[in-house]
């Protein structure tokens, strides 16, 4: 090789070394090169950032000496030479930061380890990033839950309208107590939506992921059957009982919520057993001998005055206070008229979709809806809307389509002059109809209206009014 080519080759070698030095020097990770004996040949400035010790300090030093001085805790170089393969280990450096050391062997022509190139990565930044990512994920989960809560605010949930201040307060309270495992007593007139509120609380609680929402109407089941429905029974406990027995509502609601509707109708004998469940968290099947632990949250609802029932000894005082831990009272529809028009639109949309209709209410009919007293509350409103939608021939429904009993009420409230006898009959019909919503037999009705039972029977027939 002549002098010119030799000089050129030498220049090329210098260029390659300079590029290699630049690559090593500008690496974000620490680069640490030793010979097979562990003597440091080369390193870069990143090692100073990672360890806090200038890179010049390492040159010529043996890793054994660095370990003795506490700068290193373990030698990856020695393991690479012994095992003749790439080795990784994690250790804390001189400043206490966690680092990942990866040693890679460089072999000579005889297959022997000649040098060891160690890559040093500071894990503290990565750990910080992981912590920040974990926090971000937690926040993201919280934001998702909050967005879901906002998206499912009561005034946007099917069947629930809370435009009025009173209803917003009730559903705000319901949201707050959803995951508090205390008994809830929901009060309100017939048809105000007590079961809807109960199911809303369940849906927004952790129990909705663990157990079922079980509802039982305490007034709809004969007293002699109610006990077995609530607590279940063992096989052969009574005539006609299944040989295998049957779980009751409490067992079916395990880990979930049991909604006791019309709790005021619960017989005194069963009130004692319910009190035991609330106190001890266990039930005993009819015909059984061993109590069984259950995890059930109790919701109760009634349209009756339980305090008065306690005074009259019709309801146990101790049970009343056990149930009345978190009372929520839903106001009647006539006391929250801001909710009426949104409810009308919601119910009409549901009915139109159900029956493939395209019905609308004119202004006068909507005005009637706003002024009517709604003794049956939301249930009555929905039933009337459905009735009008399916029976009216016109798509635009007016006030003349109202059933006769509503037209009579409308005349009484619209300052219309009618014959005195007709006015008396209309007023009488309205009073009897309102009382019939509350009382279940003619004896109670006659007593409430201070008249005789035969008179009530005759008037009911005359005005075509039916008791519930």
From TrEMBL:
Record-annotated PAS domain positions: 16-67
Keyword field contains Metal-binding: no
A family per Pfam: Sigma54_activat
Domain Sigma-54 factor interaction: 160-390
PAC domain boundaries: 83-135
Coiled coil start-end: 126-153
Family annotation (SUPFAM superfamilies): Homeodomain-like, P-loop containing nucleoside triphosphate hydrolases, PYP-like sensor domain (PAS domain)
NCBIfam families per record: sensory_box (TIGR00229)
Protein name: HTH-type transcriptional regulatory protein TyrR
Provenance organism: Salinibacillus aidingensis
